[in-house]
Design brief:
mainly beta; lipopolysaccharide transport protein A fold; 26-stranded antiparallel β-barrel; 12-stranded antiparallel beta sheet; 3% helix; elongated
Length: 664
């Protein structure tokens, strides 16, 4: 039934009432609408829907033009939006990192004020991002926009977690603020704070979810962090690593991103009470475009003691830490001038006095450019090598190259490089103060490509023959790879095969170098290398073998097998053998998400040459629900290079949809 009162321009409707106005849809049993002002009085099975929310309420006074009003016994569903867990501290395990899910919120309050389209206030309210079967689910809401009496529905459902607070202020897509707040798990209070604030947008100043754990080396572990959103493009994280056995670590991380560059820098310090030593780590990277034709970058990695990563990072690292800073200027599309500084730290020893540093290096290069039927390119540099012991000094190195390519069925490529190198030496073992070398390099190759399609696969074969020659010149102190450009006379035959099947591909590359060495007065076969990889649905096989027919021995073998034994469950086995490095170890891994809400990952390594043979072992289990997740990790590492063995356990809990937290 619908009545219209012209003097007030008022509509009164009963029955199945539906109002549509400026993108807002309202249904109710009874409704009064003042058309000029947009004011409405709604009663009985009221459903309000706009772009951001669906509201069930018993009674409502709403201004449909301003999207404001009051709600009585209201259940609010804030619609799905993209949500990414905060990764500011880097403490999230792999199972939770990188998740990008849709998230929504359920809010219930006896009296709620709608202050704007995206703003709500309640004297008391329950907030959760959890669905509650069978009623409070998005699927159920799609079937029937009215779920029933909101008060009865809220009383009959107990979400896995919910915040119950007073004076609740909700800014959709921004934050939740409340006083006298209790966190309840399945209806049981587990935490209380007189003031609470949580971000709903991921970048908001406040505390991040802490990591807790235990370690036989470090003791009880507690890692709280505070995230400061300085600006839309800058933030800082301050973290504390509490280790009950060895001390307290402090870390600052700063990140920025703007139109001209980006960067991330961090500093970490701990005084280790076990070894009574201060440990520092400083690292960071910046990439800055100074002008359309110039840019600069810095990549700094510094630790003051070589065992830092073995004691605190809990992971293997490269032998060398390299820090670099460079300024580059470009002229056109193929010319570049640069100024470079480079500093190395050898983690196998505690002093860096023996490492050869580039402080600085200036260079000029021309990228390949057409010069008639040829291609010309140039590389040149002048470098100051610094170290306190052994040979150092300055070096000028210039190498222009002219290349030519021709042929169709057989593709021929050849290049000729001229190289001039001049030195000023310091601390040379042969007491030389200077030196120079003039040389050249010639490289030629011929490549063919054959393709044939069979019934079930396509075969592609690419044979090639390459020759590389550099004459013998003056013996010089070894500063870097530039001094190795000498005494080369090598043929290399290689055959690349691709077998492309419908659901898989098999690749095989065979390369056999032959040293035609006039300088040593003999020629011989160098080690052959065979590389294979088979990718198919459900498994991957890769093998890399280096074998010397001259010496009748296998020099190195690297292999990997990954098999999907069940749906979303894979096993992996890896092997690495090197005779030169006296290495022989295996890696084993299991990864599964076979169960709907569980993820398991296990990794172990077994070193035949070491004692004990079983090396690093890591077990990770993650339980992921619609609105929360928990991840735990157990790690066992043997003693290494003066660092005792360690057995550790860590735990991280996340409430989805709640970013940083503030407590008072």
């Amino acid at each position: 039934m619908l009545e219209h009162f012209e003097t007030e321009d008022k509509y009164v409707a009963t029955g199945h009432v539906r109002i549509e106005r400026d993108g807002v849809v309202v249904t109710a049993d009874r409704a009064i609408l003042f058309n000029k002002t947009g004011e409405s009085e709604l009663d009985g099975n009221v459903v309000y829907e706009d772009d951001s929310a669906i509201i069930n309420t018993e009674k409502a006074l709403l201004n449909l033009d301003k999207n404001t009003g009051s709600l009585e016994n209201a259940l609010i569903f804030l619609k799905e939006r993209r949500y990414s867990p905060s990764q500011a501290t880097g403490t999230l395990p792999a199972a939770l990192k990188g998740q990008r899910n849709t998230i929504h919120y359920w809010i219930y309050g006896e009296k709620i004020a709608k202050l704007a389209e995206d703003r709500y206030y309640a004297r008391s309210a329950r907030i959760s991002s959890c669905d509650s079967e069978p009623c409070l689910t998005p699927d159920n809401l799609k079937k029937n926009k009215y779920l029933g009496n909101p008060k009865q529905v809220a009383s009959a459902t107990t979400p896995p977690w919910a915040f119950h607070g007073s004076n609740v202020d909700i800014a959709v897509g921004d934050s939740i603020t409340s006083g006298s707040t209790t966190l309840q798990a399945k209806g049981v209070p587990v935490f209380y704070t007189p003031h609470f604030q949580a971000s709903l947008r991921g970048r908001e100043t406040g505390f991040l979810t802490p990591l807790v754990g235990s370690s036989s080396l470090k003791g009880f572990i507690f890692k709280p962090s505070f995230f400061w959103a300085i600006d839309d493009n800058k933030d800082l994280t301050a973290s504390v690593d509490y280790f009950s056995k060895i001390g307290v670590g402090k870390k600052l991380e700063y990140r920025y991103l703007d139109f001209d560059g980006k960067g991330a820098w961090s500093a970490y310090h701990i005084y280790d009470t076990d070894v009574r030593r201060n440990y520092w780590e400083i690292k960071g990277a910046s990439d800055i475009r100074l002008s359309p034709d110039s840019k600069a970058y810095a990549d700094i990695n510094y630790v003051n003691h070589s065992d830092f990563y073995r004691r605190y990072a809990g992971a293997a690292s490269n032998r060398f830490l390299q820090s670099s800073a460079e300024y580059s200027s470009y002229a056109g599309s193929n010319r570049r001038a640069y100024l470079l500084g480079q500093y190395l730290i050898d983690l196998n020893r505690d002093a860096s006095v023996h490492e050869l540093q580039r402080l600085p290096e200036a260079g000029y290069s021309m990228h390949p450019a057409k010069a008639g039927p040829f291609v010309f390119h140039l590389s040149s540099s002048i470098t100051n090598f610094v170290r306190s012991e052994a040979v150092s000094g300055q070096r000028l190195d210039i190498m222009p190259t002219l290349a030519h390519t021709f042929g169709d069925s057989v593709r021929f490529q050849q290049s000729l490089s001229l190289r001039e190198t001049a030195y000023l030496f310091k601390n040379d073992a042969a007491n030389r103060s200077s030196g120079h070398r003039e040389t050249f390099g010639y490289r030629a190759s011929a490549t063919m490509r054959f393709l044939k399609t069979y019934g079930s696969f396509t075969h592609v074969a690419e044979p090639s023959l390459e020759y590389n020659f550099v004459p013998q010149t003056t013996a010089l102190p070894l500063l870097d790879s530039a001094e190795l450009y000498d005494r080369i006379a090598e043929f290399r035959f290689s055959l690349m095969n691709y077998f492309r099947f419908r659901d898989s591909i098999f690749a095989l590359r065979l390369s056999q170098p032959y040293e035609a060495n006039p300088f040593a007065g003999r020629s011989y076969l160098k080690p052959m290398r065979l590389e294979t990889r088979y990718n198919a649905k459900g498994y991957v096989v890769a093998v890399d073998v280096e074998h010397s027919f001259t010496e009748g021995e296998t020099r190195a073998v690297n292999s990997q097998l990954i098999v999907e034994v069940l749906d979303r469950t894979s096993l992996s086995v890896g092997e690495r053998y090197s005779k030169a490095d006296n290495l022989m170890y295996y890696t084993f891994g299991v990864s599964t998400q076979y169960f709907k809400h569980w993820m398991f990952n296990a990794i172990a390594s077994y070193d035949i040459k070491a004692k004990p043979k079983l090396r690093d072992v890591s077990l990770t289990a993650s339980h992921i629900q619609q609105c929360w997740a928990v991840s735990s990790q157990i790690t066992k590492r043997p003693a290494a290079a003066g660092v005792p063995s360690d057995f550790s356990f860590t735990l991280l809990f996340e409430l989805k949809g709640i970013g940083v937290l503030k407590f008072l």
